[in-house]
Amino acid sequence: MAENQLSLTPEKSDKTSKFLPIIIVIIALLALSSTAIFIKIAVREMSAVATLFNRLWIATIIFGLWSGINQTRTQITEDKPVLPQHRYPIKEIAFLIAVGLVHVLGRLSWTWSLTQTGAANANALGSLNPLFTTLGGWLFFNQIFGRKFIIGLILAIIGAIAVGFEDLLHSNNNFTGDAVALISSIFYAANFLLIEQISNKFSIITILVWRCAIATSLMIPVVLIFEKQVFPVTLSGWLVVFALAAICEALGHGLIVYSLKTFSSGFISLLLLLNPVIVAILAWILFSENLSIFNLLGLTLILGGIYLAISNKESVQSKVNPHIQSPAETES
Q1: CB atoms within 10 A of CB 202
Q2: Residue 14 needs a FRET pair 20 to 30 A away by CA distance; which of 38, 108, 201, 242 works?
Q3: Distance CA 190, CA 194 (A)
């Protein structure tokens, strides 16, 4: 009996290792789906830019504490030095700095676009992020994407636009705001691609600390020049920005960055289109919000497109760890 139990242990462990990356992505998506709710509450007390600044500096502290605890534990248990004993090439350091730069530029341009154009326009143009991630990976990093992945990508993007189609029809067009919203999606794509390239050079926590620290540093002059109120003034305001930092930035984006060791940047950006699906379902359950025919059509296209993309193993795998199996294979 004991021998049978022991013989099953490796198989169970193997199945767990296959499903764990998928579970991590699902948790990240659930955490990120709360972003819009927290921001909507936070902007009642301060501007969107001030909200972003507080979210970033609090997340920097969270990641910094996490890094310090992790390094101390490593030094105690493994008797290894806390600081690395080798110097990183200038190219890798430049990539790390670029991650923080495009991260804050993407957030700022998206925030500013919302003041210049309708939310529907901004959401529709922001849905092009997976397209730019896939295109950038193919042009600059020699990534190859199969036919099924491309078709799934197109279907999912059309679905994301269809979710907000009715609002899009009633929104006022503004070329400047639309252009900036489009640029923000390019910055987000660059962020994914850069992280994918350095995720085998730096630890995940190092990338996260640097990204938030650089973004926070760049935000300081912005809030000091343009914002009269930088910090929350009520306890509820502080709780909301802390939730944004801990749940959305640290947990949500932290797990997304971690997932780039397993899945390609193109696939991760495509999975993020599930956010409107999750938000729509939660709104339907919690607030009894009705789903229109365009909402249902869009959600169906997103799910169908992602399912089709999953079936293409080479496009789903991260180039950092090409031996990871695709989610479709874990079902077999």
Answers
A1: 20
A2: 201
A3: 6
Q: Is 263 helix (H, G, I), strand (E, B) or coil?
A: strand
User: pLDDT class for 232, splitting at 50, 70, 90?
Assistant: very high
For 294-311, write each residue's pLDDT tens digit.
778 888 888 888 888 877
Non-local CB neighbours of 46 within 8 Å, separated by 6+ positions: 54, 227, 229, 230, 231, 232, 237
Six token digits for residue 98: 């670029």
Handedness of CA 184, 253, 291, 240 (dihedral sign): negative
CA–CA distance, 109 with 106 (Å, rounded to integer):
5
Are 204 and 156 a contacting pair, CB within 8 Å?
no
How far from chain centre, in Å, is Cα 119?
A: 19
Contact 196, 14 (CB under 8 A): no
pTM above 0.85, yes or no: no
Report yes or no: 45 and 234 within 8 Å, Cβ to Cβ. Answer: yes
- DSSP symbol at 274: G
Q: What residues form DSSP beta bridges with 317?
A: 263
Q: Which two tokens stand for residue 1?
A: 């009996």
Over range 129-135, report the average pLDDT: 86
- Residue 101: phi, psi to the nearest 5? -65, -50
Looking at per-residue confidence, does 126 or 221 come out higher? 221
Contact between residue 251 and residue 27 where contact means Cβ atoms under 8 Å apart? yes
9: Cβ contacts below 8 Å, ≥ 6 apart = none
Three-state DSSP state, 317: strand
Sign of CA dihedral 45, 48, 54, 58: positive
Q: Report residue 82's pLDDT band, with 50, 70 and 90 as the boundaries.
A: low
CB half-sphere exposure, 186, CA atoms < 13 A: 7
Helices and strands per DSSP (H, E), number in the chain: 17, 0
Q: Each residue of 70-98: b (16+ CB within 10 Å) or e? A: ebeeeeeeeeeeeeeeeeeeeeeeebbeb
